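User: Show me a protein chain along with its predicted structure.
Assistant: Here is one chain, sequence first, then C-alpha cells.
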Amino acid sequence: MANKHVNAIVVGSGAGGGVVAKELSEAGLTVVLFERGGWASYAEHGNDELTAQRSFPLQCYFGPDNERYRRVAVDQQGNERIVYPNDWAYHNVAACVGSGTVSYGAMAWRFMEEDFTMKSVYGHVEGSTLEDWPITYADLEPCYEKAEWEIGVAGDDSENPFAPWRNKPHPMPAFGHNKEARMLEEAAKKAGFHPFSIPMLRNSESYGGRRACVHVRNCVGFACPVDAKNGTHNTVIPTALETGNCELRIESQVVEILTGESGRITGVAYFDSEGRKHEQTADIVVLAASATETPRLLLNSASRYFPEGVGNRHDWVGRNLQGHAYCGADGLFDEDIYDDVGPGASVAICDFAHNNPGVIGGAMLANDFIRLPYAFTGAHPPGSPRWGRAHKEHQKNYYRRTAAVRGPVQEMPNFESRVQVSQDVRDHWGKPVAKISGFKLDTDIETCRFIAGKAQEWLEAAGASEIWQSVPGAGVSGGQHQSGTCRMGDDPHTSVTNKYGQVHDVDNLFIADGSLHVTNGAFNPVLTIMALGYWVSGYIVKEWERGNRFR
C-alpha cells in the first residue's frame, strides 16, 4: 500500500530537523519526519562509560551501529581505509530521535557578529574558500531567541563582555560553579581575563514541565537521568507530534531523493526497520541529516536531471567540510580540586574568540567536562607511562587533581576538505558510503598554538604545578561539530543553497543542518543549527501561507 502524500518530508530529527518538523506542523503542513535510529533513554544505557558516545571503544550506544554502517577515510597520503562508527575517523553523529541533542554537552552558544563576516574581518586567507555568510547576526538573532526560549537555555550574557547583543535575556538563570570552576574563575580574573558561566541547554530550574539538573558526572556522552538536558527529542518533536500533523518514522533509512519528470523533487526512497523499501512523496523535502550524511544523500541521488548529484551543478556539494580544531592545555595540581559536582564544564572566557593580532579567528576557552576513568587515561603528561604501575599511580593520585581548559578553534574552509561517495564501498542497503578527506590549513594550526598558549596562561594563574598543551594535527576534522558541506550563499557558482537554505535550481528542496554554515564559529555550533532550523522553516511557512507550493 502506497504512503499518503504529505506537504513536507524532513530527513533527520536532530537540532535542525526537529525544529523544522515542529514549525511546519504547527503551521498546518502535514509532515513526515524520518529518523534512521530509534528512541534512546538513560534507562537502557545508564552510566556505562565504555558505551558512551565520547569513549567509542566498543560501540556507539546512540548509533549508528557497526553492522550496517561504514565509511571510507582518506589520510594525508591518499591512503583509503574502511572505518566504522566507533572509529574517530568516521566523524560520527548520533542516530536516534534527537540525534546528538540527546547526549551532547549542551553548550548553547550564539555565534558572534564577526563569525558571520569572517571574509570582511580577516580578508583573503591563502588556500581557503573563506566567505561571509549571506545572512547576518541581526537576521538570525530572533531565531536564536526562539531556540533559547522554546528549547530552554540557562545563561546570563551580562557576565560576558564579548557576547553579541540580544533583545531578550535567557529564560533560566546561569549555572553556578563546582570547586574546580570556582578556582578557574578566580584565576581568570587574576590573569586579566573575563570569566562567565557557560550558557547551557540544561534546566537550571524546572522548565518546560521537566526537572532541574541534578549535576551528575556522566552528562556529556550520556542521556540525562532526569530529563533535564534539553534537546529536540524532549521539546520540539513532542510538540510537533501533538499537532496531529507530524508523523515520526523511526528506524527508517532514507537512501535517495526522488526526482520527477520535470526535474522537480517528488519525495524520498527509504528502507524501514524490516528492510523493505518504500517511497514517500511530498511537496517539499528538507534535509537535516548532518553535514556528512546530507551531502552523501545529495550525491547518491544523481539522475538525468542531476547527473553529478542533486544541487551539485557546480561541484560544491560536500566541499568545505569543517569541524573544530580543538586545542588547549591540561594541568596537574598539588591539592584536590574535584568535588564530584557535574557535569564539569561551566566557566568560560571569550577574550580570544576574535581580535587577536596576527591570528586568524580564535576560540572561546572553557574548562572541560568531567572525564570518567577510561577517558582520563588520556589526561597524562607527554611521555608518561600509559600502562603498568606508574600509569595506575597517576590515575590514583591525579584523578582529583587535574583540570583541562579547551577551545574549539574555527577552521578556515577549504575546497579539498570534503565528503564524496565511494566508488567501491557500499553500506547495508547497497548505497555508496561517504568518503571523507581533507586537511587543516597552516593558519588553523597557528591559531591553535595561540589558543593553547592562552589556556596554559589560565592554568598557570590557577597554580598548576605541571602544564602541557595539546594542539591537533593537520588532518580533516568533522565529528559532532561538522559543518559547511552545503554552504549557503548568493552565488550558485560558489554555494549550494540560497540564504534560506533552498537548494539553487531546486525550489522545493531545502537544507537545515550544519551543512549550511559558511564558517563554523569559535563555539559549539548546536544553537546556531537550531536557529537555522527556525530561519529555514520560517521562510517555508511564510511562502506557504502566501500560496507558494514550491511547484
